[in-house]
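A protein record pairs a chain with a discrete description of its three-dimensional fold. The following entry can be read in just this way:
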Amino acid sequence: MLNVPGIAYGGDYNPEQWPEDVWAEDVRLMREAGVTMVSVGIFSWALLEPSEGAYDFSRMDRILDLLHEHGIAADLATPTAAPPAWFFRKHPRALPVDKDGRTLSYGSRQTFCPSSPAYREAALRIAGALAERYADHPAVVMWHVHNEYGCHNAECYCDESAAAFRVWLRAKYDDDLAALNHAWGTAFWSQWYYDWDEIIPPRATGAVPNPTHQLDWRRFCSDALLSLYKAERDVLREAAPSTPATTNFMVMYNFDALDYWRWAPELDVVSNDHYLQSADPESEIDIALSGDLVRSLAGGPWLLMEHSTGAVNWQPVNRAKNPGELRRNALAHVAHGADGIAYFQWRAAKAGAEQWHSAMLPHAGTDSRIWRDVVRLGADLKALAEVRGSTGTAHVAVVWDWDARWAMELPSQPSEQVRFQDLVRDWYEPLWRAGVAVDFVRPDADLSSYRLVLAPSLYLVDDTGAANLTGFAERGGTLAVGFHSGMVDHNCHVRLGGYPGAFREALGVSTDEVFPLLPGETVGLGGDATGTLWSERVRLDGAEAVASYTDGPLAGVPAVTRNSHGTGTTWYLSTRPDPDTLAALLERIRDEAGVRPVLDAVPEGIEAVLRRGADADYLFLIDHAGKGAEIPVPSDATELLTGKPVTEGTVQVAPGEIAVVRQPR
């Protein structure tokens, strides 16, 4: 993965922001904290190339030499996320244009159109110059291509983008305009196209744009940025074929611009940035969900490229982390597959847009809680060196699909309250609380290693994906499907004949009408159980009712169903059950599927995660509730953070603390 021993540790290092006499203190403190790798040069284009084609590498030479001298590896970035001002003065057409037709100015970052030929040429030129100079530098162990692709410019609506979109469409539809008209349903609202040049991006218009037009646009935008990554990576790979390349994904609650299933195979090392939502009272769940998704994208261990030691600077209120939270967050990422932990950034900035973003070395310096926590975490990661290379093993798969997410969250849906991420987290959370290991999969993934597959939200599914999922149940697996799934095909066309469309036959149900619920409205499901958000008039067509609606216009209608399909079992949830009811349903479903948690009984507030190595299992126990717990473990186990053997068959997790137990196999 990386030519760095153990669990890599570090962060973004931006020495160009500081006088050179600060650098010696930086590397000294890095050694004190246990830092082993830093990312450099991410936003240094203006200094590396002061004018077009004229390079000044003297500062970077000294930085890389200094890092190598002190045994710190470099993840060397191409600085293409922030083109310099001179570039835009020369190429004003490279500036991005928003949906309303406004040209945005430079003066921040990612202020370029992804389809701009001038930007591509300049980006490949600086990448090539870096590759030529530093391909053999002993400090450089990885290339960091760009930074957070699509974070600020995922979509550009300029004429250059329009032309590139048409090229992409002609390739997708084999130069057949009739095929595009059919796929987009352009007979509706007189949108028929007679010439490719008539097609433009889905710019601001007076009513709801065509949904398939918008969906293809999202697909194109993801692919346009991917083509930029691949072009830079190939330049770097030509110069240094043995040096891995990565770019930092943003698998987190507020970003959905890129189809990372398409991106992940193109990365030598999958890396991710993850930041907490201040308003989320249980952000540890989002850490776990994100980590499991990134591990699934990577097919194994991955690298956490950025997170924060404390507050960020871009939310309405930027909450500082509580005592112990820095450590719990970082080690939770390791528990879910990270083989490297890094932060934005090393030293907190005194100027610029992110001057109030926390860092490993805060404004207060070393006499601070954050610094002490950073040093302690470095020692923790050193103690966990042997965990590197191990990974999670799951018998439960949750279906995650960016196409389905994009399609369901387009305008003109039955309810704009239905959000993909919310529904997936609803189903993920009770599994996480119970200590059940989870993988995420595409609809067309190989499911042969799983006992249970959950599809909480799969509004769009193509025929291949639908056949794969229903075939899994037919061959003996257990499949559970959430409402508003299977409704449309890959062209966003409604599957006729009743809902839930592609899954109707396998689920043994048919719905003729959906009844979205208003905010605050509930439906009874028997006893204290309730449903929110959605309901349907479900008719049984072979399935049995497990729970029914008890009030409202659907009183007596099945709400949750179970069906035998082939040699397997399928479940359908036609509403959003309250958390306790959903947890009980999922417990019953997984018990029937023969899925066991990591521990037979996980104490409340303890996160239990298992990584499996070649010779041992590594059980992570993280106390998020601050209550502590005594956990039974094998008597031949060792707690790695303390180095102490387990002598009495239990390990004590102190309040707010973490234990990592090595269990030989």
